[in-house]
Amino acid sequence: MQITKLQSNKFKTNLVALFITVPLTKENCTKNALLTSVLRRGTNNLKTQEEISKRLEELYGAGFNCGVDKLGNYHVLKFYLETLENTYTLNNENLLQEGINLLLDIVFNPLVENNGFNKVYVEQEKLNLQKLIESRKDNKALYAKERCLESMFADESYSLYKYGSVEDLVNINETNLYAYYKELLKNCKIDLYVTGNNIDNIKVPEISSKNLPQIENLHVAPEKPSIVNESQDVTQGKLIIGLDVGNSDKAVVSMYNTILGGGANSKLFQNVREKASLAYSAGSSYIRRKNVILIQTGIEIENYDKAVKIIEEQLQDIKNGKISDEEFNSAKQLIISSIELIEESKEDMITFYFDQNLFEENLNVTEYKEMIKNVTKEDVIKVAQKVKEDTIYFLTNKAK
Amino acid sequence: MQKIQNDKIKESVYIETLDNGMKIMVIPKPNTDKKYIIWGTKFGSIDNHFIEPKTGKEIKVPDGVAHYLEHKMFEQENGVDSLYKLMSLGLDANAYTTNDHTAYLFGGTKNFYEGLDELMNYVQHPYFTDQNVEKERGIIGQEIGRYDDEPAWKLYTNLMDCLYANNPVKQDIAGTVESISHITKETLYDCYNTFYHPSNMTMCISGNFEPEKIVEEVKKRLLPKEKIGEIKRIYPEKEYTINKKINEQNMEVNIPLLMIGYRDILENEDNIMKQIAIEIILNSLIGKSSKLYQKLYTEGLLMGPLEFYDEFADEYSHVVIGGQSENPERINEEIVKVLKTEKVTAEDFERNKKALYGEYISEYDDVETIGRNFLQDSMKGINCLDYIDAFNKITLDYVNKIQENLFKEEMSALSIVRKEK
To answer: How far apart are CA B393 and CA A359, in angstroms?
Structure first.
């Protein structure tokens, strides 16, 4: 297990994060999601959720959280524990070490019976996960974004829903999940991140971890953008446009994305919202590990054509080099500020360094900031030529 | 300048009340690079009926006006959009409106004083024209539309409708497409001139600052304003019962959403002590480590912990408990029963008090949370630092008394959002 200590005197709490990373595959996706929920149900020391919760409360209301995420072509099982800095305890308790011990107990010492997980826990978590998968439509904006990505990457593992599928869930039981868990621990990358002021003296046992191969992105945008429509009971339409940015320099694409749709100065915000009054929210986000920019906005159903036209005009404008100095400089300023804020948040710090490590770029915050500083307008225009509209997704109402 | 220091959390707050009545609170954080400022006025969606202090004129405004005004503040006479300007300075700027206040804020690692120039300039220079007020209607209409599709938002507003018959807290903060159609530049100016007076405003600043110096910087940028008398707000008469027991709405959600509300009509209670008591009660009896949660989780009726919090201002007070379940009615029954019949044990009390203490201290982790908390509490007449002392004072007897008086079955209501059967 690779241990990374990020020392900082800015906070009153310590955050500890444990990540288990494997390539994202259909075979394992659902198992990973279920495993995370089963692990938090009980350990050999604290056999029930109730005992774990009580223990967390005793540790001054330590926060525990776990889940799964897609990061590029990997699937990450994430476990977080946040404790108060020892200096704020009433009896000088070593909360950080106690917290780490609890986190490791949950991940590496699960409740095992008859060479399997607890049957009741697995059955309950299967049911919960099924409900979770089935209720993803409840968050319309998120659903629309994910559906656009799924359609773009239809023939890749990235199109898998991070919580897996109901059909794969059916075949999992307490025995084969436990067997999978043991196998997983032999073949995954395991990282532990610790942030805080006083973190030198933590004790962590040796746990083996594998280095993972880098997985290339092979997606090629279609000649003409694919049009995808889906209907649901909504009053507001969700328009998502996926752009393929190819394997271009990531610092330059970040600048491109921010000029296009990052914040109130961006072309999308100014033109879709401020000038045309078509939407309340209009912006874009860069999914760097998949070479994709997603444009997202919520509009009246009948304004679909108008919105697509205005958005495409913005893309064309950047291609034609129509970027004012003000737009360019404020985008740069915005990214630099957001980089400077990374070290103001424990979670952002961990996320940044984990990502850098996993994708073998190993930049620190300062180096990353320098790369953004060096981007020129010409770089952005050059990259703009390679940006391709890939998929236009619209979540519309049923009347249509 | 008043200094309040707390040795347990190792933080201090400096409070200065200016001659014009404006309150400034500075919470220094020497180790952080991020700076944060938030400037609020005690004017929220519930303030829709008032007497203008200068003219003595009684004014009634359409629902959603505080929020509309917030949107329009950014536009300047020279065509500059201040949100745009702040963001070009690399500052993360925003504004929000709640039931009882409106706030303008920004944070970032540099250009703080340039940002302060812009913030204090735009908040003190309203510029409303028929044309620019008209233009905003479409954008806010879409914002309202977005909420209309949000099951969780509907769930909450429907619960407010159960808890209150006439209190304006039950209206959507942004108003309705119909109500905002009546907003004109005159409405906005009437509200601005009344509520954006320094005596009705508070500013909270956190980061690596010397308190005296930053207060001087703020004073330099304040425009002189004539003193005004007290703003008289007119609210419907206080209600002592709930409006209706249940509200059910059909929307496309996979698992039904439920929200239980308790009207709190207790009077003359210390708000901080009461709030801590409520959290101890709910954590102990229906929280993650409670017997009830374990039971409902095991039966498959709950998939995750219930969320709960209390909300209060001078004009309203209630406790809200929310979750997702295939059987909302059953969850409601169980919760109401437990809160009525079971008591917090001494062990629960001690454990949850400790947990709350830890959570409370961790709220001093970053300048943004600090700024927001101090502003929000100050709008309710609370000083954040008082929480720590309250932890030392609170007793199990007090907690039991609050439970008995607050969690009464007849004061509870249930809101459900589920698919059409």
So the answer is: 52
